[in-house]
Amino acid sequence: MKFDAPATQNPIDQLKVVGKSTDRIDGPLKTTGRAPYAYERHDVAANQAYGFVVGAAIAKGTIRSFDLVDARAAPGVLSIITTLDYEPLPLGGQNTANLFGGAKIQHYHQAIALVVAETFEQARAAASLIQVDYAREDGKFDLEREAARAKPVPDEDETNEAGDFAASYARSEVKLDQRYSTPDESHAMMEPHATIAAWEGEKLTVWTSNQMIAWGKRDLARALSLKPEQVRLDSPYVGGGFGGKLFLRADVVLAALGARTVGRAVKVALTRPLMINNTTHRPATLQHIRIGANRDGRILAISHESISGNLPDGEPETAVQQTRLFYAGESREVSMKLAQLDLPEGNAMRAPGEAPGLMALEIAMDEMAEKLGLDPVEFRILNDTQVDPMKPERPFSARHFVECLRTGAERFGWQKRKATPGSVREGRWLIGMGVAGGFRNNQLTRSAARVRLSRDGKITVETDMTDIGTGTYTIIAQTAAEMMGVDLDDVIVKLGDSDFPASAGSGGQWGAANSTAGVYAACIKMRHQVATRLGLNNADVIFSEGEVRSGDRALPLRNAAHDGELVAEDGIDYADDFADRAQQSTFAGHFVKVAVDAFTGETRIRRMLAVCDAGRILNPKSARSQVIGAMTMGAGAALMEELVVDKRFGFFVNHDLAGYEVPVHADIPHQDVIFLDTTDPWSTPMKAKGVGELGICGVGAAIANAIYNATGVRLRDYPMTLDKHL
Ligand code: MOS
């Protein structure tokens, strides 16, 4: 189905099932431990052996040789494969660092060997006996030092300049010129990267944990020089990804190579230290923002520069993205620079670009409001825009940012905030409130599904879409139930198998809207088949309560499958220029109250509120869970999360959950989420947009601004640990 004009009235608008707060249909399986995650799939292949991955102990250099004598002789060892046994495996387009093969080491804990043994303990013990002779080279590990040599990376797909920034800035009456920084961060999902691999002749199956099944199939085939049809990925349950499982990682290719070597199924999980240094992370940024405005508070000029680092051929963190679009102003320029670093690969982590970009921009907006003597809510409202400020002929498809701010201010009790910093005190605690805007784009991407109607009237949906803890199973079931006029209980959803039609996958908060739109398309096709089979008029047919009605006729839906199961497959496709005709984004207002210990600088969050404008909310309950999870991640980014770089040896030191701190329940005492009742007909026939990443966008700055309001100390470098108050 081609989607090339804004959606009109359609069966989803009935909202009998869609749009209702609905418990996860996979909840009972998960809460009783019966949802099988990759490493626990004991039943999929017999006689599974265990693989243990060895990571390089240097950050840069080459391997001269391995001494495997002791390791091979260790109990239970079946085989050891090393990186010297292979050429570097060909990489998929979105991977940067080598996954395995060759003597060259690009980063610390790059995979250099796999020990396969009868038990996990035996594999791990043998791995510790491997001796490696390295030729170590000096590397570049310090972003601040390399920043001076960073090279511009113009974003060819985007507009980087509009108007004349220098001239508009020069004649601005009030100016801000400040620098901000964000650290390297880790996804720190609960489930590690894990894979069981088994070969049947030349056919490889991997039971794994991956967000993007179609990419994984393509890239695994490429890595092992197989045809795509020789490869199957299965990933029905994913214990968190946050971008860390978008692309193929070493667990997948090493399980496959190990299984081929020993002629048995092999299972491999990355240990927590390997997750930190072997896989990817959110790159640190150094940001420079200048804003000029007139005394009346109207912005004239905005400039945003971001410097990040990555391995050669790696991508920059696109932290300037939102600055193109978020606020009005006649002139702006955005730019990114990339420094070469020999740290592990930087890549996408939840809301790549906007998450760290807004951590800077939204502090800058708070600083400007103060310089102008304006309330920070009003300053943002004053500079709202309903069109792309760099291409004014292009409107936003739907933008209710002002309503997010007004609703939030009212519900949060913003009028009680004292504009003068440091003026509210409760004993040793300084109390402050902060606000920030949230912004995240909505991306359209093809998504397909197959729908089956069986003789008992049950609907089965099959798509390679993943549920990374987001609630995908449930919103897909809701969509199919609404479209086919059946109860939620009559829908079976099967996900994550590359033998199913290729979906949008889970990434970039595009999963919910696109994958359900693919199910919508398949259901439209199924409805036609049903109407034809039942001899009903397709034009006025209604699917409701297990019946199909047309005029004064009503027939049970299951009658259509009387002579055998009906199957319909289709996908949603977008006209090439569709996304260019209107800018699709999502918006939020974040409000935070903090208490800061006047003596130690310890910051405690007291309350958080997010008001979200993200189109139709398909399931308010699971969407709320997405947003509060993202707000929690934003609190982590603001107050504690930081991969600490060892600048001598080039690795992330705090490579476990003891050292890499994430928020716990005690850090998050109170959260509220309000969804504006909006739809966006430009997004898909579902009129829904992404929301899973919106929740993290802006939170960090709202906390920073609350700390400033509490203390009068302006922090611009994250995380805002207590030492930064000194
Ligand atoms: Mo998201 S960082 O695209 O999983």
Automatic annotation (TrEMBL):
Q: What class of enzyme is it?
A: oxidoreductase
Q: Name one Pfam family in it.
A: Ald_Xan_dh_C
In which domain of life is the source organism classified? Bacteria
Q: Does the keyword Lipid metabolism apply?
A: no
Q: Which UniProt keywords apply?
A: Oxidoreductase
Specify the protein name.
Answer: Xanthine dehydrogenase YagR molybdenum-binding subunit
PANTHER family found in the cross-reference section: ALDEHYDE OXIDOREDUCTASE MOLYBDENUM-BINDING SUBUNIT PAOC (PTHR11908:SF123), XANTHINE DEHYDROGENASE (PTHR11908)
Q: Which residues form the Aldehyde oxidase/xanthine dehydrogenase a/b hammerhead domain?
A: 32-138
Oxidoreductase listed as a keyword: yes
This enzyme's EC code(s)? 1.17.1.4
The cross-references to NCBIfam families, in alphabetical order and at most eight, read: peri_hyde_PaoC (NF041671)
Q: Which GO terms describe its molecular function?
A: xanthine dehydrogenase activity
